[in-house]
Amino acid sequence: MALFQLTDWMQRMGVNVMSQNRMGRRATPVLSLLAATALLALGATQLRAEDAASGSSDSVAQGKALYAEGCMTGCHAARFGGDATKIFTRTDRKKNDIKAMAAMVSFCANQLNTGWFPEDEAMVTEYLNTEFYHLTK
């Protein structure tokens, strides 16, 4: 049923999903289905990035979970006596704008090999800004 719904949706969007095979029967090309799947995945990624950029409570919660999983037990805790949040509450904070903080999140994610996607980094940045920095966008 789901495959039929997908092909029906693709036809309504103007994608030719049905073709004739050598025996004159209609067949659903695999490439059309793969293309549709890629488009759906791209749309989902875009929605996650927009959600993170908007600062919704869901993206902040996801950013907090990603930060807790990827950062709290590593470098930050080791450098600040076991309290990973002290890096954000110290008086000599080095990041004073959202772009610099986003760049630092990306740098740390790469250093720790977290495997985060850009939208994951955006959610972590949003969490840190909401929780600690309160910078304007």
Automatic annotation (TrEMBL):
Molecular function per GO: electron transfer activity; heme binding
InterPro entries, A to Z: Cyt_c-like_dom_sf (IPR036909)
SUPFAM superfamilies named in the record: Cytochrome c
Protein name: Cytochrome c domain-containing protein
